[in-house]
Design goal:
263 residues, alpha/beta, FAD/NAD(P)-binding domain, eight-stranded mixed sheet
Length: 263
């Protein structure tokens, strides 16, 4: 059988167009495909919500791929290993409450399970701004302004497009890119002690692991922070290649958003 290149091209165009058009309005838009964002996506999709994830890079996973210093194993604690167990990721007990798992296995399994649960992923896609509306007298984020990552990297002056959503999950990690844009361009206060992004502090894994979950919250109407973005927003510490807090942060964000969507 001979191959028709035109049909191959047509198939890609048609399917991508249909996927993108279907995601012009979603329940939750997630910015950043690291462990907390993908975990949130998986649990939101399992709860029946319409979710799209926008990742600037070609691949999902964030810092999870490389483990510690490119040694591709990660560590989780007893209290969080159930998140990976539900996905079918094999783990080994190392000492006491510490468990190890292959970083590549964990990352690919999490991405696959989230997609199979219904997540729509748009990689090579950058979020350059948000859309804001006044709802019942309160300013609220109601969408994302998106552009092609190659366009952004090349510095081309090409206008973006917009998708609508009920909630945004800021999961861009240490850089808190969505929140920084929101704060820079608008006269707003976040739900933080000083009303601003407080910034990430240095390594203190024990405190950081707990705070990653504690600080997962809605910090502006329509915007949740998860993972390292939560710690950077609320002024806590970094924790390195231990990922239990990241996973539990994604679960918490999904549960809280799902409850609000169903209310």
């Amino acid at each position: 059988m001979s191959l028709d290149e035109r049909i191959i091209t047509e198939a890609i165009i048609t399917e991508y167009y249909n996927k993108f058009r279907d995601c012009l309005s979603v329940d939750v838009a997630i910015v950043g495909g690291g462990p907390s964002g993908m975990t949130a996506a998986y649990h939101l999709c399992k709860a029946g919500h319409k979710v799209a994830l926008f990742e600037r890079k070609l691949s999902l996973g964030g810092g999870m791929w490389g483990g510690g210093m490119t040694w591709n194993f990660i560590v989780v604690q007893e209290g969080s290993k159930h998140v990976l167990e539900e996905l079918g990721v094999p783990m080994k007990q190392y000492q006491g409450e510490y468990y190890t798992c292959d970083a590549v296995t964990a990352t690919t399994t999490l991405a696959s399970q989230a997609c199979l649960a219904g997540l729509q992923v748009f990689n090579c896609m950058s979020v350059e701004d948000v859309a804001i509306r006044e709802v019942d007298g309160v300013k609220r984020v109601t969408g994302l302004v998106i552009n092609s990552s190659p366009v952004e990297m090349a510095g081309l002056h090409v206008d973006p497009v917009v998708i609508n959503c009920k909630y945004v999950i800021e999961a861009t990690g240490h850089d808190t890119e969505v929140l920084k844009t929101l704060c820079r361009k608008n006269d707003i206060r976040l739900d933080t002690p000083d009303g601003c992004i407080m910034g990430e502090q240095s390594m203190w894994a024990d405190v950081a692991e707990a705070n990653t979950v504690e600080h997962t919250r809605e910090v502006f109407p329509g915007v949740y922070v998860t993972g390292m973005a939560a710690n950077a927003t609320l002024g806590s510490y970094r924790m390195g290649p231990i990922f239990g807090g990241m996973l539990l942060s994604g679960v918490k964000a999904a549960q809280e958003i799902s409850a609000k969507l169903k209310a």
